[in-house]
Structures are given as C-alpha cells and as structure tokens.
Specification:
Order of helices and strands of chain A: EHEHEEEEEEHEHEHEEEEEEHEEEHHH
Number of domains of chain B: 1
Strand content of chain B: 25-35%
Structural class of chain A: alpha/beta
Low-confidence stretches of chain B: none
CATH architecture of the largest domain in chain A: 3-Layer(bba) Sandwich
CATH class of the largest domain in chain A: Alpha Beta
Structural class of chain B: mainly beta
Number of helices of chain B: 4
Number of domains of chain A: 2
Distance between the termini of chain A: 36 Å
Number of strands of chain A: 19
Helix content of chain A: 25-40%
Mean pLDDT of chain A: 95
Strand content of chain A: 25-35%
Largest interface: A-B, 43 and 44 residues
Helix content of chain B: 10-25%
Number of helices of chain A: 9
CATH topology of the largest domain in chain A: FAD/NAD(P)-binding domain
Oligomer: heterodimer
Strand order of the largest sheet of chain B: 1-4-5-8-7-6-9
C-alpha cells in the first residue's frame, strides 16, 4: 500500500496546478497520470493561450506543463498509471502499465480527470475517417501523423475552430466548419484566423450524412431552420476524407460515481457534474475536484481551479493556513475575473445552478 | 455577421482605426479585437504603454494613439493574432502592413505573395518587405507586406498554398 498525504489523479492543467500548489505548501503529493507524458490535453495545444498575463496567457499550451512543474521536485510523479477504483475506506486501486496493480491510501484526493468528447448521431458516423477532435490533435500534434487530406469540421466552439487552424498549419485542407447554433461559440479572434485562411464557417448548418464504402469519401451538410430542423433542398455534398467532431465535452466522473459523490445534471457545465463548494470540495470530505471534471470550462480556469483545490486540500492537511488562505483567495478572485465577461455567462449560470442545488442538500460552506 | 462568419465587416474594423491625421503621421496599430474575452497580454506587450485593458481582463483593449509608434512588438503577443500595424506613408502609392503569421514555410523577403482580405479572398499582389521571427516572438512570425495604399486596411493575410504560401 502506497501512503501519501495528497493524491492528485490526472496530470493535465488542473492536476499539475493542484500538485504544484499543495507541494509548495509543504504537503507530500503523489501525482498519478495515465499518459506517458504529463500535461493532459496541454501537450496537443500548440496555440498561444488567452487569459491573464499572471497565468501563462500568451504562452503556448505545449510549453505550460514545464512551467507548472518548475521547482516541484517534491511531487512524486507516477506516469503511465491509471487509477481504477476508489473505495469508501479511502483506498484507491491503481495500475501502472498493464499489470502492476497496487493500492494507494491518501489522506486527501484531488480528481482532475478531465472530460471526454461527446459524439453525434448521423448515418455513416461509424466509418473510418470520422474522428473526435481530440484524436485528430493527438495524431497530428503528438505523433506527427496527418488524419487525412480534406476535413469537414463539425462544431465552431473553441476546440473545432482551433483544431481547424492546426489542420491548416499542418497543410491539410479544411473544406468547412459547420455549426448548428446561429453564432460561433469560439472566441471570434480564433474564428477570424480561419476566415482569413478562406475556410467558410457555416452557422445554422449540420452534417446530414457521411458517405463512403470503406472510409469517408464525402459528407452531406445542410442548413437548419430556427427550430434546428434541416431545410429540405439545402443539402450540399463536400468531398472530404475526414469528418472531425468537436461537439462538446462531458466531465469524466467514473471514479467519483463509484465512490458516490453527489452529482447534478447541468448542461452549461457539460452534463453531469459533481457538487463542490467554493473550495472545490465534493460531497465527500476527503475528495476535491478541479478542471473539466468539476464542470467543462477551459484550460486557464482549469489551472486556477487546480491551484485552488490543491491549496484547499493542503489547508485541511494542516499546511500553513495563512499561506494556503492567500492562494485560495487569489484563485477565487482569478476565477471571478476569468468568468466575469459575456463569454463567461454560461459558466456563471451553470455554477449558480450547481451551488443552488448544493445548499439544499449538503453542509455547504459558502 | 462577424458572430456568424468570423469575418469582420467594414463598420466593425473602421471603428478600430485612428483618426485621419494620425493615420497620415506614421505607422499605427490596429487591434481587431471585437469581443470581450478574458485576455490581456497586449497590455503588457507595449513598451510605450499605448494599450490599456485595465483591471477587468474581459475589457476590449483601448489604444492611445499618441503613444503608439507602430513598432509592432504587440503583434506576436496577441494569442488571437488580431493585431496589425499599418504604415500609410511607406512609399508613394504604397503602404506597408505588418501581419502575424504562423504557417510554414515562412515567406521570404523580396518574394511576391497574394494578399487576402478578412474573408480569405485574394485582393492584390503583395511584396514581402520584412520577416521578423525573433526568439521572443515564440514562433509567431511578423510579416511586412507592401500593398497598394487602397488595400492597407483590407489585406489581412496571405493566400495559403504553394511552395511559399501564396505563390
């Protein structure tokens, strides 16, 4: 049995920030990550990040993991390690590689397990050539493999628009980006980069069908009316060999569900999300959440949440409460600031719903 | 239109230009940032403190044109690649624009590329008169294009494709 003060599950932006914050407060931290290389989705993010200058804005995502781990030799890192169970007696089970099974008994846990991609139903969606945007990024930005020659992107949120830009940078043709909503969800500056490259962004459009015998050879798109129904006669067939789906993310809650954390369905935050208080503690006293696990947002917020959860867990473990309190307060202020604008409205609405629900049923500390 | 296509319209970008006198008195920055998003690297990039965002990082940047000398340092610092510098007095009949650029291979100085508008449509030939790719730009190049004066606030990119994008 491996014993540690704090176990952080997941080495993406939130997990790294949580481990770093707790270690800086003198807490013994074990960081378990299923990947071979730490960073989670950051290792695929070749673009410069938004946010505040104090929190790595302007730095490319791929360069952030190293910044988050700077001076953190106190963090014990276990890569290639998947946490596979979480039990009421506070024991978690883990596997390194394919066959090294072991148990971990931490005093506190931060789950920063990220999110998984949503899928879309349409005829032909099982053809080879239909990818999730994460897979396209992994192939292209981690392994240097192009997914195809001509791409139809589904979804004009930040992921769809950014991955389209990265495809162009890799020399791949992007035939169009289709988006069912009337407006682009991504930051408009990202969308404008694509527009300058001549890629049409078609809002109020959807994919009707992917066609092909052994793999995708074309895709049919069509316009939607105000009730989100296909307008007959507007169908167009595009010659593409890749259909890339970027239609949203849902928090990964498997372990939190197993241990019985309370959850609530909040569409604004990506689906089922765990209840958590303002210090990111769940309904279970020794479990914290951070990043997309706590509600799908973006990487800047995930890093701040990680720091917050790491410091809050550290405070519970007996770290210097003044120092921990400073970090907690500054993170809460940063989150407010990141979410303050119009693009943060959805997140604010989601969190309000979550906290509203929480107060009725838990000993929720404001 | 901008919200549904990503293409800024004339009324959008015209509002971002300085007044006519300032436009004629030397290079000036054009920050084509139209949406309140949490982002502020441009504010810290300017050595002359010409760009202000302030305490709420969702504020759209505001340029004090008396302080801007069109140096272009901010161009590569903008994560949205939304900053351009325009010099309407480059040489008779022509202006120079500085644009951010992240496609390889980089165009070479002296080559002629196709200048494109905000919608990606080809507008005019453009001579590459400068290529900046210093270490502190972190892989965002800044390309100087010589374009006919009428196009200085129309051209915002280079046509992709070919050996050196645009040929």
């Amino acid at each position: 049995m491996v014993e540690t003060q704090l176990l952080v599950v997941g080495g993406g932006p939130a997990g790294l920030a949580a481990a770093s914050a707790a270690a800086s407060l003198g807490i013994e931290v074990l960081l378990a990550d299923e990947g071979l290389k730490l960073g989670g989705q950051l290792v695929k993010q070749t673009h410069k990040f938004f946010g505040s200058r104090e929190h790595h804005a302007g730095v490319r995502g791929i360069d952030i993991p190293n910044l988050l781990l700077e001076n953190q030799d106190k963090v014990n890192i276990m890569s290639n390690t998947t946490i596979i169970g979480c039990y009421e007696d506070g024991v978690l089970t883990a596997v390194t590689g394919e066959d090294q099974y072991f148990k971990i008994k931490p005093q506190r846990v931060v789950f920063a397990t990220g999110a998984s991609e949503k899928f879309l139903s349409f005829p032909g969606n099982d053809l080879p050539g239909v990818y999730g945007a994460g897979a396209v990024q992994t192939l292209m930005n981690q392994y240097g493999v192009v997914p195809g020659k001509r791409v139809l992107m589904i979804g004009a949120g930040n992921i769809g628009i950014i991955v389209s830009y990265q495809l162009l940078q890799a020399g791949i043709h992007v035939a169009a980006v289709v988006e069912a909503a009337p407006n682009i969800g991504a930051y408009l500056v990202h969308a404008s980069k694509l527009a300058r490259a001549g890629v049409p962004i078609l809002t109020r459009h959807t994919i009707v069908e992917a066609k092909g015998t052994d793999s995708v050879q074309s895709a049919v798109i069509a316009q939607l009316d105000e009730k989100w129904q296909v307008i007959p006669g507007t169908e167009k067939e595009l010659e593409v060999d890749v259909v890339c789906l970027a239609v949203g993310l849902s928090p990964v809650l498997d372990l939190l569900s197993q241990i019985g954390c309370r959850r609530k369905y909040i569409p604004e935050l990506g689906g089922d999300v765990p209840f958590r208080d303002k210090q990111l503690k769940t309904s279970i006293d020794w479990i914290y959440v951070a990043g997309d696990t706590a509600g799908v947002e973006e990487a800047s917020a995930a890093m701040v949440e990680g720091r917050l959860a790491g410091a809050a867990a550290a405070a519970q473990l007996g770290a210097d409460s003044t120092e921990a309190g400073k970090i907690i307060a500054s993170c809460q202020a940063s989150l407010d600031s990141l979410r303050r604008g119009p693009v943060g409205a959805k997140i604010r609405a989601g969190i309000a719903k979550l906290e509203g629900g929480c107060c009725k049923c838990l000993n929720h500390q404001a | 239109m901008l919200k549904s296509s990503g293409i800024a319209q004339k009324s959008d970008w015209e509002a971002k230009l300085p007044d006519v006198n300032r436009r004629k008195s030397g290079p000036y920055v054009v920050i084509e940032c139209y949406q309140k998003i949490p982002c502020n690297p441009c504010e810290g990039a300017c050595p002359n403190k010409a760009v202000t965002i302030g305490e709420d990082i969702n504020t759209i940047p505001c340029v004090e044109y008396g302080r801007c000398n069109g140096c272009g340092i901010c161009i590569s610092r903008c994560p949205g690649l939304a900053i351009f510098v325009v010099d309407e007095g480059f040489c008779p009949g022509f202006g120079k624009i500085l644009i951010p650029w992240e496609y390889l291979p980089l165009p070479t100085k002296g080559s002629v590329v196709a200048g494109v508008g905000r919608d990606g449509k080809e507008l005019c030939p453009a001579e590459v008169v400068e290529v900046r790719i210093a270490k502190n730009q972190d892989r965002t190049a800044v390309i100087g294009l010589k374009v006919p004066l009428d196009f200085v606030n129309q051209v915002r990119g280079i046509k992709l494709g070919g050996e050196e994008n645009g040929r």
